[in-house]
Amino acid sequence: MKLDQEILQDIEPPAHSMHASSFQSQEEDSSALPTSRQASKGIPLLLVEDEAGMAAEIAAELSDLGYQVQIERTGPAGLAAARSQAFSLLIIDRMLPETDGLTLIEILRQENILIPVLVVSALSSVDEKIRGLKAGGDDYLTKPFAMGELAARVEALLRRPADLRSSILRVGPLEMDLIERSVRRDNRLLDLLPREFKLLEYLMRRPGQTVTRAMLLEDVWNYNFLPQTNLVDVHIGKLRKKIDQPGSPPLIESVRGAGFRLRA
Amino acid sequence: MFMTPIPWQMRLFRAATFRLAILFALAVTASTSIVFFFVYLHVSVYDDKQVRSHLIAETADAAIEPMERIRGEFERRLASDLRIVDYAGFYAKDGTLIAGNLPAPPPGLVIDGQAYQLDSPLADADGYTRDPALFVGRRRADGTTVILGRSLYEIHALRRIVSRALLIGVVPTILLTLVIGTFFSLRSARRLQSINQRVNRIMQGHLNERLPTRSGGDDIDHVAHAVNLMLDEIVRLVSQIKDVGDNIAHDLRTPLAIMRARLERGLCSESDYGVRESVHQALRDLDRALMTITTLLRMSEIENGPLRRSFGTVDLCEVCSQIFELYEPLAETKAITLYLISSPPMPMIGDFQLLIEMVANLVDNAIKFTPQGGIVTLGAFASPHGPGLRITDTGPGIPAKEREDIFKRFYRHDRSRHDAGSGLGLSMVAVIAELHGYGFRVGDNRPGAIFEFLPKGLSGQASRT
């Protein structure tokens, strides 16, 4: 059991980690849809953003994915909306007219409104991110970002990792024993390096969910910078070689313009 | 209205030095006046007092002396008084003059042994004795009266001399101070005016102008010299900003131009696939441009931000093994062998995340420039002056004359090479090293390059970053 806890501590949920902005698009070998439209059907989101163009783009992207987006342009309006209606997630711009984004979050947290909050900001410094998360934000995304990155972060916040206490994870033909630190595919033991094991564990805790390269670097490697080369892709490629079987479709799909997804 | 030229009189009055001169003149006048005032006070009050007490004592003496002695004394006294400043009168009971030079007691004199100041009863032709005089009268036991007096002429004359001296002294002092003040203020006004003209020219954009200085080296020269040094620094910074600005413009312009061409070509494409492909490629170019901006912002954040980030103990050996693990698969895909040179723990004070990023950039670069089948090594080692890092590759190496330039912003080791980087990787490396007080020594691996991360300053060998 002690071993189990250690592993759990190693893998932080995205809610409390720092995220570098990601707008790197890389070569994709498949073009699956970023998120299943059915899954997000009608989930109500509140977007508080004063820049009309940016608000429209974000809203259009999220509406395309099936979310129901309400836009507010100022801090007080956003606060009023968040108080009066039940939203599943708030997306709040860091700098807002009248009431600052961070102040808005602090007020909500004081009033015990604990909806997950994604902070979107043009301020990229590490200190700003720490401030954003300290104020009660659950994730911090720096502008400019790829829409795929935004969608993945929203999805991650809405679908918190599955039960953290279970010591066996099962996704499709894969079975991971967190105590034995072993992975089997259809009862065949796979030989994984520690880093590959961690990477696969992160994906298995989020089956069917898109994870971006930035999310993987931050959460699996704990780095807050983005290397210039396709490092993450190489690691995923190596992992794929070990878990896939010739003839059957790859278990880890590439999501165009976003990242990767473990087929549920 | 605001800019109408001010007449020179007004300008003079506004000049700080001129105002100072006036202030100085006032101060001199005031202090001179105070000195004179004390002299005057002494002359008029102290002398007056002395004469008074003298007269009172003499009269008291005369009142008790025998009559004959008084007569003799009076005659002697008046005979020796050539300037006629002494008065004396000795009167019988009925008021007739027995001896002295006062025919009758001065009108208004109270005979009580006290001193009174009265107009002189003796008027000369030349009027000198019209000066007031002090008189003391006393009645003797036998009913006769003695009156002694002394003209205040001398004292008053002294007063007149003192006040005239005051006037004669103070007026030229004021005038002289004003003249000197005007001279100096006009002189410094001329210098300030020429400085002002230069400043105006500099403000109009002539950044190569400098303020005039003289060899003398007074206060104004010191200020002008400091301003000139400041201008030198500003010119240096402006040109640096301009260089960086030019570089950014160049670096952004290239991907934007390519992007534009791709989108244009994509629009003309017959197939849906063609349009999609060009949009995808354009997005990639745009991401590259945005990455450049983000990297520049991060560098200036690290360079200019206070050292708020948490510096702690970082084991360079651990940094190397993490980076080895991160990059080993990438090296493998390029058929490059990545070696981790093992070492005992090498702790140093630093920012773990930034050091990881720095080594990642260096290894990234090494792998990028090393051909298939090459070897890249990384490892920590103990230099004589502290823990260091060494990264080697078997790529084309770096010519000796370029070894300083590669850390500059936007410098491309080989411009003909079409690498995907922003050209900022090594600049970022240099910025992080600088933050830690480290520098780089770049050497030849025959073939390939050696990058050594070493403490700066102590060794003096680490190259400037």
The CATH topology of the largest domain in chain A: Rossmann fold
CATH domain class name of the largest domain in chain A:
Alpha Beta
- Give the C-alpha Rg of chain B: 51 Å
The parts of chain B where pLDDT drops under 50 for at least 5 residues are: 412-420, 459-465
Q: Report the radius of gyration of chain A as a whole number of Å.
A: 19 Å
**Overall form of chain A:** elongated
Helix content of chain B: 40-55%
Number of helices of chain B: 9
User: What is the CATH architecture descriptor of the largest domain in chain A?
Assistant: 3-Layer(aba) Sandwich
What does this structure look like?
The complex is a heterodimer of chains A (264) and B (465). With 264 residues, chain A is α/β, with parallel strands linked by helices. Chain A has 2 domains: 14-158, 3-Layer(aba) Sandwich (Rossmann fold); 168-262, Winged helix-like DNA-binding domain superfamily/Winged helix DNA-binding domain (Arc Repressor Mutant, subunit A, Orthogonal Bundle), CATH 1.10.10. Chain A has helices spanning 2-10, 52-64, 75-84, 101-110, 126-134, 147-158, 194-204, 213-219, 231-243, and strands at residues 44-48, 68-72, 89-93, 117-121, 139-142, 168-171, 174-177, 182-185, 188-190, 210-212, 252-255, 259-262. In chain A, a hairpin with a 4-residue loop joins strand 7 and strand 8. In chain A, helix 3 (75-84) packs parallel to helix 4 (101-110). Chain A is elongated, with a radius of gyration of 19 Å. Chain B is an alpha+beta fold and 465 residues long. Chain B contains 9 helices and 12 strands. In chain B, strands 2-1-5-4-3 form a 5-stranded antiparallel beta sheet. Chain B has a 5-stranded mixed beta sheet with strand order 7-9-10-12-11, with helices on one face. The two termini of chain B are 55 Å apart. The relative contact order of chain B is 0.06. The model of chain B is unreliable at 412-420 and 459-465 (pLDDT under 50). Classes of the chains: A alpha/beta (264), B alpha+beta (465). Chains A and B meet through helix 9 of A and helix 6, helix 7 and helix 8 of B.
